[in-house]
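ZP: hey, is the guanosine-5'-diphosphate complex queued? I don't see it on the tracker
AM: it wasn't, my bad. submitting now with these inputs:
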Amino acid sequence: MEAGIVGLPNVGKSTLFNALTCSVAAQSANYPFCTIEPNEGIVSVPDDRLKRITEFIVPQKIIPAALKLVDIAGIVKGAAEGEGLGNKFLSHIRQVDAIMQVVRCFEDPDVTHVAGNVDPIADIDTIETELVLADMQTLENALGKAQRSARSGDKEALLRVSVIEKCNAHLESEQPLRTLTLNPAESNAISSYGLMTAKPILYVANVDENDLEGKHPLVEKVRAHAAKSGAGVACVCAKLEAEIAELDEADRAEMLADVGLAEPSLNVIARETYRTLGLQSYFTAGEKEVRAWPFAIGSTAPQAAGVIHSDFEHKFIRAEIYSLADLEEYKSEKEIRAAGKLRAEGKAYIMQDGDICHFLINP
Ligand code: GDP
């Protein structure tokens, strides 16, 4: 699963990307187009349930769930026509599972704004318009092909034609496909097109150092806009987070206390991105490692097991599952088993967030 960071130039994408991934590869400089090649990084998803598990099961290693993050260079007006580095950005966005759009809500006369003034809603609209136009182009190309197949009696193509027309009408009213309700067969009919406005999106409001909770009216506007268009919102001061990320643990705690944050905002963003991607975690817990594994909400136990190793999905026999509450009550897996609380679940079981499990696999 991967998320792509997008945003206009100079909104703080690279600063945020670097802080999130602690990668030195992405440049951060005060001029447009400083990031040309997309950079990839890994973000771990902090989860305090890991710590709670390790109070009872002491492992050699603790491994949180992780996400891949791609820093996609600054999109500009006209990208759909190949303006700026247009087409390249768009093809990168097509490949990600979710979009994280950084919008500038901080004022700083030293940092140039490409459109001249700080207006996050205008920034959101600029990017959304490009993505809407690009999706319309994709659908236009697909429509001709689907119509030809439909004429020769292909039933699936007939469905595709009708879904494409439905999507087009929605896009023409300047609405992202995210807000169009399609049934599973309809979604499936167009799933291979990589439609960008259908992807889940998280707006990251890059706020001022003295507005960490995002009380500024501009941030409120972003929240209202997101509520209408099916997006999530998280606040961060990228510059401050970049500084916090570089500190050692003791200094970090002190700095967080100074600025009045309970934890780095990066943690919140990582969790929000995870949620935006439709992911939850189950845990495996043993002496070697206690580890969180991401799975798509609604996955069956074999599908969730397949996250550990693709073989596990096909060779799945059953899962033995208990909860963190059981662990906290009975203190060990042995006692959970003795109390008859270790559940055996079969192939149809829908994995639940927070399940702690063993999978029994055919050799
Ligand atoms: P990008 O073009 O979107 O990748 O933007 P960068 O991350 O390169 O940031 C552009 C400039 O804005 C740099 O000079 C950053 O130091 C500055 N910047 C980024 N985030 C913040 C912030 O939260 N507050 C302030 N004041 N400046 C920031």
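AM: back. The chain has three domains: 2-54+65-121+198-276, 129-193, 298-361.
ZP: great, adding it to the tracker
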